[in-house]
Amino acid sequence: MNNFGVMFHHFHDGVKHIKSQGSICGDELKRMIFFLKNDYEIVDADVFFYKAITNELHHNQICLTFDDALACQYDIAYPILKEMGITAFWFLYTSIYKGIIEKLEVYRHFRFSSFDSIDSFYDLFFKTAILNKDYTGIDIEKELKHFNPDSYLQHASFYSDLDKTFRYTRDYVLGKENYYLVMDKMIEEHAYDVLSNKSSLWITEEQVVNLHKNNHIVGLHSHTHPTAMATKPYEEQLAEYSENKTTLEKIVQSKVSSVSYPCNSYNCDTDKIMNNLGIRLGFEAIMHDRQRQPEQLHFPRKNHAYIIKEMAE
After folding, report:
1. Is the backbone peptide bond immediately before 294 cis, with ω within 30 degrees of 0?
2. Residues 260-294 pLDDT 10s
3. In a domain, 110, yes or no
4. β-pair type (89-92, 281-283)
5. How many helices (H) and strands (E) does the chain have?
6. Does residue 123 sit in the same domain as residue 234?
7. Are the C-beta atoms of 62 and 41 separated by less than 8 Å?
8. How many folded domains does the chain comprise?
9. Domain range for residue 297?
10. Among candidates 279, 293, 276, 269, which has minimal Cα distance to 91?
């Protein structure tokens, strides 16, 4: 059995949506879909959901998934899916529908719109973090002295050593509040205007409703998108996913029964929460042999970057 989801994040069009690390254009998405159809049957989200939870998926049936409620997905990918008659899973975090400007995506847009290269951003990020150790109380150089990028995020071979070092520093060295301190200082120094850019970042509530009405499946992705959910206690995880579910169900006026785990971070508490919330189908962000239980909460996904690599070969 070879069933999985294909995972997409960022798209670019050279106009409203900037090109960024890992982003693809609409034509690349089309070519990818045709390439996948050579070896797999891409089934609609509702069909995949039903067959997955009833263990009736046929060999090589796969689905398409989109994480993070990104406007570029709706503007670029959705019209292509509509044209090709394909429905997908859309995993959305929901703090943005409560008036919160979620910094995860703001920071990403900042680092790709304000720097000539991702390495230039990393260079200034680490310099800023080091210079501000009196404020954060963290000696970055000391904390990273024994860090080995080869042993971190091994499932994501498309990440460079600097990508891995940045993510490790963000999630496990600085932590949320200190990471925000460093990034906000950089944004201030670059005079980056958060408010003027926010309208191009996320799918609107009306668009979420439209996806649901057109038979796409809307699923959980936490409320605020923590990047290390597995480090949080049960109560915090429960609050994240409960708020996520309540908000989405209010928007689409329908039950939400699927999830993808932000940054592939979960633990046994997460499984308990999904069962308590009535979540029937879950997706990871990696490929595996799916021998763990409960199987329905841990379907594998293949990052689109690997599909591009396969196409090139």
Report:
1. yes
2. 999 999 999 999 999 999 999 999 999 876 554 44
3. no
4. unpaired
5. 15, 8
6. no
7. yes
8. 2
9. 5-100+202-312
10. 279
